Structure formats: structure tokens, C-alpha cells
Amino acid sequence: MSEAGQGAALAPAKDERVKEISGLRRALIRPELGAIVGTIAVFVFFIAFAADSGMFNAQGILNWSTVSAQFMIIAVGACMLMIAGEFDLSVGSMIGFAGMSIALISVTLQWPVWIAILLTFVLCVAVGALNGVIVVRTGLPSFIVTLAFLFILRGFTIFFPQLIERQTIIGGISDAAEGDWLAPVFGGKILGFVFDWLAEMEMIAVFERGTRAGEPIVDGIPMLIVWALALVAVAHVILTRTQFGNWVFAAGGDAQAARYVGVPVNRVKILMFMFTAFCACVFATCQVMEFGSAGADRGLLKEFEAIIAVVIGGALLTGGYGSVIGAALGALIFGVVQQGLFFAGVESSLFRVFLGVILLFAVILNTYIRRIITGER
Amino acid sequence: MSGFDHDPIVEMRGIEKHFGPVIALNGVSFDIRPGECHCLLGDNGAGKSTFIKTMSGVHKPTRGEILFEGRPMSFDSPRDAMEAGIATVYQDLAMIPLMSVTRNFWMGREPIRRVGPFKFMDFKTANAVTMEEMRKMGINLRSPDQAVGTLSGGERQTVAIARAVHFGAKVLILDEPTSALGVRQTANVLATIDKVRKTGIGIVFITHNVRHALAVGDRFTVLNRGRTLGTAQRGQITPEELQDLMAGGQEMVELEGSLGGTV
Fold it and tell me: Complex ipTM above 0.90?
């Protein structure tokens, strides 16, 4: 072993049985790879087939960016949780529940909207924590525990508005949010002046008639997109660059091994359930502020869409491996394809066929990648 | 040999552990001195695992006392034992295959770099130290980002041992580190044990393979049905005697006869 000292300048000793891995194989090991290739493919496809449909003018871009951002917000939470080794199937119900909570508190109880938003966040994060505590205390699969909450939360979301207002859609939130300080953080738009300037420079279209004649068609970036990008950035940095991120990987990779070296696995998992609930609540709040109403059927099937985006992003369903950037790209693929099919005039039900097919491909690719990493044959 | 003029780092006296009606340990005494390799032998179900879990803070003994550097000690969690300097390398749970060598090495004790109010993991230091520690143990990594899954079983054990040594373990408990390994890899792990022992760390080597134990052991303690059958020093006991003690004597002699003495 002493040759290591003097041989430092020379090439390190090689084991003849370890094959040099090619650059391609090395790139394959990155969890995001599939999602990067998918994103490029999707854009090439739609630029080729739907370029003249208005999909890539300012309004079109805003359209699919908004849809992608929605997917992104819930995918970030689902991604962190999946890497920590757990699922949350109650995300969709949580979205409906959170929206209805804001509506009931602000419209029915007539409380200020900011109180409604804050209370709802507290409530949702608490439900997330409850999910987490039940999972780590009982050792039951999170699949079952959160499936229970899928029904419990959806049931309450339908029950309360019917009991109180005798309807399942509650409107009037836009009026209630007028002048509120917190509502624009979720429902507002930023950088409006940039778009005014772009319109002046005639780089984007303006309304030609009506009350808004002369104003740019796109008048700012919705806070929804800002939230999505911020959550992706923060989650990515935490996951890849911090001690806590290492604990998330460890908790999902092998909880027992992590416990033995002192990683607080239970705390990590519970925090990730809370974060997922937080993301669902951000989604719901943005949606409620945009629509001005809450409906008992909001968020249906969102949990699965989030999980699919995460899996396309390269995360393993078994935990311990994945990437927030990958999940965000998975969400982008979703948004672009869903809206792109609309722009290209394709029957929208085919979107579900696409989802199923791409999910299957992603899982097969991920299994193959895991074999490379772990050296299984 | 080394260590006999030193006081024990850890001394366990009359340890008993009951799980409900089951008596897993029924009076086990054991000690470990700096710079020695103390082998703990026993057949499956002899209580080896329960005993080391008591030593590493996973279980609390029902009766008996644990002295750490001469003072009575009671560990509430594996974390407590680790802080005191008792590190355990478990057979299958040493490493997480999907994570990189660096991430595994620092798991639970990540180095922190502050940037303003934010705390990041210091990957530059972490990678450099990991590479250096692995080189000391005789393993040249392709890169510190390499997933542990790409390492062989022996290399994984070595990473876990290097990790424990780096974090200042005074006692290193190795739970059957060689039981799943091939001949060559076993030799590597035994060589690592010898290297670590020479730095003054006390090693508790759990095994049911007499040959592996005799290759590196300074002292040998045999567990059978939850009791210690005695401790022998190197040179005072033959492989056959050890084997007999482990298996409980009589039937083994008959079995060995029928197998031509090859076990």
C-alpha cells in the first residue's frame, strides 16, 4: 500500500477486474437523464408539429408554463417524500380540502383571507404530520395510511360545504381577497412592467379591442410559477447540498442502517410528509386565488400525477434515489404534452394514454439504472 | 501480546437480558482492552447479536453492569454509545448501496460549511477525507461519488470500518464481517482488522468461524445458550477445543466423526 504515496503523481493503481465505465454509462447514472432526454424530445416534437398553432407565442408559453408549474409544485413534495422512502396518496384530497378550508373560513365565516390562508396551512401541515407520525409509529406502509387519508379528507371536503352552505362549490373568494395582503402572494403576478415594456417594443401581442385594449396579452408572471421555481430551487439545494438532504437519502435508502449511525429517520420522514402537505396547500391556495372559488372535486387524481412526474424524473419507487430537478422536468413534460395536444388539436383523452405509456417506460428505465448503480446482475 | 498491561476500555459483568419469558443472555462477562482483537464466538442463537446490541446501546441489560473506562455507564441509544466511542459495524446494514461512498462515510455526521445564515454540507472536505481514509485502508476509489453498490462486500465492510476509525472509535464491534465474503475478501477484511488493532483500538470480532477468529484474535470468548463458557488467550486453545466449546461438545464430536473431521 506504500506505492500510494509516491505514486500519487502517477495513475492510481487499477483493479484489472473493474472495467472503465464509459461516459455514456456514467451519464446514465444521473437520475435526471431520462427526464432531460424526454423534455428535449417533447419540445422538438411540438415545435415540429404545433409551432404555428400559437403554442410558442407569449400566451401559449404562459399557458403550458402555468400547467407545468402546477404539476411541479406537487411533484417537488412527492419527490422529497419518495426519496425519503414514503408515498403520500392524500395529496389530491389535500388540495380539495385546503381549497375548501380557505373558502369556508373566508367566505362563510367572513374572516380575513390572510387568516384563512394561514389557518389552512397550519391545518394541512398538521394533517401531513399526522400522516407521518402514524406511518413511523405503526410501521405500516405509507401507501395504506395515506390511502385512508385520501378518503377521509375528500369526505370532509364534500361534507362540510354541503352541511354549511348546501353546495359543493363556494365562490366569492375574489371579492373577499380584494385588498388582502397575503392573497397576492399566491394569486398575484410579478414583473408586469417587463411585459408592458415588451409590448411597447412590439415583441408580444397586445389586446386590440375591449376594456383592456392596448394592454399586453400577458401582463405578468403568475405567482404560481414563482412558487414552483422557488420550491424546486430550495428543495434541490436542500437535497443535494445539505446535511438534512443526506439524511433524506439515508432514510429512504435503508432506514435501519441510517438509524444505526444516528440519523433521526423518524423526524426526517415526518418532516417530509409535512413538506408534501405544504406543497399541496400552496397548489390549492394558488388555484383558489386564480379561480376565485373552491370546489369539492378539486385535486382529483393529483397524487398519481405527482408520483408519475417524480418517477419520470428518475426517482426510484423504493426510495433512496432521485432528483428534484428530474421531478421538475417530469412535471414540465406533463404540462407541455397536455397543453401541446390541445394546441395540436389532438383528442385530449389521448393524454392519458401518453401518461400510461411514458410511466411504463420510465419505470423500466429506472430499474435498469438501479442495476447499474448497485452492480446487481 | 498488546494490550494486556492496559485497563479494559469496556467491561461487562454478569449481563442478563430477558425478552419477556425468553432469557436471551444469562450472565455474560466480557471485556475489551486497547489494541486487542477479542473474538466473540458462538453458534447461531447463542446470544451473540443480543450481547453486542447491549454493548452498543440498542438494548438495555435486564441485570448486570457495564463499565466504560472504569466508570459505570448506561447507554440510552446507539447514539450515546457512539458518542462515547463504541462503534458497531453491522453485517448487512453497514452501508446504503444507492448512496455514494462519501455520503455513506459521513452519514449522520456530515461536515458543515456555513455561508451566511445557511449551513451546507462541505463536500470538498468530505470527498478529500473519504478518499484519503480509503487509501489508508488500501482501497483506491474511482471517485468519491461512486455508489457503494459498486463496491464488493469486503470493500463495503472496509468503508464502514474506516468510517468508525475516522470518527474516533475506541472500541470497534464487528458483527460477522466475514460471514458473507469469499476467501480473498475475507483475507482483506482480516488484514484491515489487524491494521486497525495496531492503532490502539479495541476490536470485538463476532464470528462463528473458528479459522477466521484464530487468524487475528488475541483472546477468545465463547457464548453458548446465553452464557459465557470462558475466555482463552491466544496459544492456550486449539481450534478443535474452540469448535467443541461453540457447538456444545458431545454431538459435535459424533458429527465430525461422520464427516471425516472436515467441519
Answer: no
